[in-house]
Design brief:
Protocatechuate 3,4-Dioxygenase, subunit A, 4-stranded antiparallel β-sheet, 4-stranded mixed β-sheet, 2 domains
Length: 276
């Protein structure tokens, strides 16, 4: 596991064009020396929030052994496509509109550098709002759950479906962050638990498919990000993903996730004292 060195940064989010061009040039020169860190690294650092992701509840359906079953110790949990069940739960595929979820992890204590080698456990409800392993009718399934490790750009990507909306909660995706795949697959020592929020406009487009997403629109109608019991304290400002696409071809989502880590030792240490 490692944290990449910080790149030149804008002085503030409203920097002039001249400063922006200067920073871009500095960053390109540094990237050339480093061998390149990917196109995303050419963006001005001011465009990256690099804020500590709020710690949130894992909810009543984590499947991580803290409340009933533990999918993390099952062979096959490390996977990028989480649409189907696996192992003894069979191969049933959760119906729904395709959604690709990409998270990029940045160190809030090491110059916003990308963090390689983290393990991320991601899970969410199905199109009708039920959680595999817990909800009526899907207790025998373990779909829409998986673990991935972050790459050299601090990114991990999951192929899934757009989650449904159930009564009382804004459309969301859960994730837990571990220092390593070993920690994740033993279901212990999560360094950070949080949630990703999905935009309202896209959610409404998806939920208009009433055969796939029964009650999605009616459950969403009375909700706002500000009234949600998880995102309501700040309106989900650090957790609202960007999403593009359409119902026919599916959607792609992206969220930058800031975590307070120290990679100066062989073990990646989560700095809990940086929590807000």
């Amino acid at each position: 596991m490692s944290v990449k060195p910080p790149l030149p940064n804008l002085s503030h989010s409203h920097a002039s064009l001249d400063e922006t061009l200067q920073v871009l040039g500095q960053r390109r020169r540094l990237l050339k020396l480093l061998g390149g860190l990917g196109a995303v690294s050419l963006l001005p650092q001011g465009a990256i929030a690099c804020s500590l992701i709020p710690a949130e509840t894992a909810g009543p359906y984590p499947g991580d052994g803290t409340n009933g079953p533990n999918v993390l110790i099952q062979s096959g949990i490390v996977r990028s496509d989480i649409r189907s069940s696996f192992g003894s739960s069979g191969t049933a595929v959760a119906p729904g509109t395709p959604l690709t979820v990409t998270l990029q992890f940045l160190s809030t204590v090491a110059g916003c550098g990308p963090i390689e080698g983290l393990a991320v456990y991601l899970w969410h409800c199905n199109a009708s709002g039920g959680y595999s392993m817990y909800s009526s009718g899907v207790t025998a399934q373990n779909y829409l759950r998986g673990v991935q490790a972050t790459d050299a750009n601090g990114r991990c990507t999951f192929t899934s479906i757009f989650p449904g909306c159930y009564a009382g909660r804004w459309p969301h995706i859960h994730f837990e962050v571990f220092a390593s795949l070993l920690d994740a697959t033993t279901g212990s020592n999560a360094g950070r638990v949080s949630q990703l929020a999905l935009p309202e406009s896209v959610s409404r487009q998806v939920y208009a498919q009433t055969l796939l997403y029964p009650n999605g629109t009616s459950n969403l109608n009375p909700l706002t990000l500000d009234s949600d019991n998880v995102f309501g304290n700040d309106g989900g400002i650090h957790q609202l993903a960007t999403v593009s696409g359409d119902n026919a071809s599916g959607y792609t989502s992206f969220l930058e996730v800031g975590v307070a880590v120290d990679a100066t030792s062989s073990d990646l240490l989560f700095a809990d004292d940086f929590e807000t």
